[in-house]
Amino acid sequence: MDSPGKPEVIVQGISASQGIAHGQIFVFIQSNVEVPNYQVEPAKRGAEVARFDQALVTTRQQIAKIKGEVEKNLGPEEALIFDAHLLVLEDQALIGETIRECEATGRNIETCFNQISQRYIQAFSEIDDEYLRERAGDLRDVAQRVLQNLLGQAENSLARFAERRIIVANDVFPSDSASIDRSGALALVTDSGSRTSHAVIMARSMKVPAVVGVHDLTSRATNGDWAIVDGYDGLVILNPSETTLFRYGKIQERKKTFETRLLNANSQPAVTLDGVAVSLLANIERVGELKAVEDYRAEGIGLFRTEYLFLNSARIPTEQEQFLAYKTVVETLAPRPVVIRSLDLGGDKPMLGHPHLFPKEDNPFMGFRAIRFCLVHTDIFKDQLRAILLASAHGKVRLMYPMISGAEELAKANALLAECKAELQARGQAFDAALEVGAMIEIPSAAVTADLLARDCAFFSIGTNDLIQYLLAIDRVNDRIAHLYEPTHPAVLRTLQHIVAEAHRGGIPVSVCGEMAGDPMYAPLLLGLGVDALSMSPASLPAVKYLVRAMTLADAKALAAEALALASPKEIFARCEAFYRARVSTE
Ligand code: PEP
Ligand code: MG
Question: Is the CB of 307 under 6 A from ligand 1?
């Protein structure tokens, strides 16, 4: 089933949603609707306005329908974006100005609406505020729909496939991605975009393979071309040869059998062949993930990213609302431990709709985020600390501060925690007086001063996602330098070794909760370096547990010692890969 006469082309992108798909391509170019421009007689201007009203009604119905479908298929959170779209249709400034422009100039309503909406889009996209800039995207999306309806054009083409297709798009607007239904899309490939774009999040939640950052693939591929999308390695193979197809057929079969094997073995304890128990924990962002935590048998929660409670809400959640969410998690897990991380808002996670709290920054990753934000907005921070303390009366809670850069910051956070404890005591409310407090080690200065921090921490958790970005000066979301983001860089290994040594010298345990922990290629290296626990997304637990059960800790230590003596990140990675392949056969 190749595209006859066309040579095979392999394009490397960034893996965004796992899985393999084979099928024909549908090239989707997001382009602006062509708008005719003509004069309307004064007597017919009323009819122009009526046409406009009708187009607004039709657009509203279409968006409400998409919203309903998304809500049903993906849940209410994913459907929230369409509320913003519906609001655009109620914007009296936009509607009023369009009508006034039509009445004043006598130009057709499409021309007037296009002019006014373009002006708004331009104004929004120039504003120094991420939230408002995103509203420009909503407006652009809705304006295209209104124009299509005014011009009687068909609804967006992504919704009409007779057969399933691999969608190759330059970009995907939120309402387009919503109309891609699982029965229509085999895979999603985008020229631009990052792993966190809305379309990709949708693809992941629908378990559709996705690859992003393939630059100019839309201009190289043609409708109907055959292709393979490899969401594991971030590859798109155009016009695959018979040999490639055969290879991928085998890979796909193997992946399925292997995944079944992992799940079947997942009820076994995480103990190495030389009898050492390894603590495997889960990272969660929402209360809704508790089912996955139980299904994949986590021994506890090593990282609860509480900022998502805030990011998924239009306003700052109250102490009581937060308490209820934390309590649900803590009670479900009890007696297993739950590490609740205080707010890590800001950086790439600003809270939308609160530009006064999160002003635009040139270097958001080095800016006003996490503990820095909390130590300024102490009212928000203290509400959260009290909510966490209250939840600690319902199970085993540990508190962890993100982005700690040194001992003073830790002391300031702890002073606020002491105030919160006193306030709860005064209120006569129960909490765990012995609540353990730890720090994330994810800034190089914290790693270097780990000995000082260990004095005032009950545990460390290493955030390798950020630690690597700051240590190597590689923006973790910039796809142009993604190849330089190397977890096996000797600087990373030496820093990890130092943190573990200082933690243990100070008598406290240390875990890793960055993405490295959930990757079976790196897990043995981390354990060999002396890390006590690994915390990862729930779905990664079976693969890591399988490997833990197939190795000895003695071998992992030998791997770490060998890796520490090497200079090349690639060579260190090759050793890690060889370690994995020698113990786990995916055949
Ligand atoms: C990390 O930085 O490794 C981490 C776990 O935190 P986040 O990914 O939320 O920044
Ligand atoms: Mg981090």
Answer: no
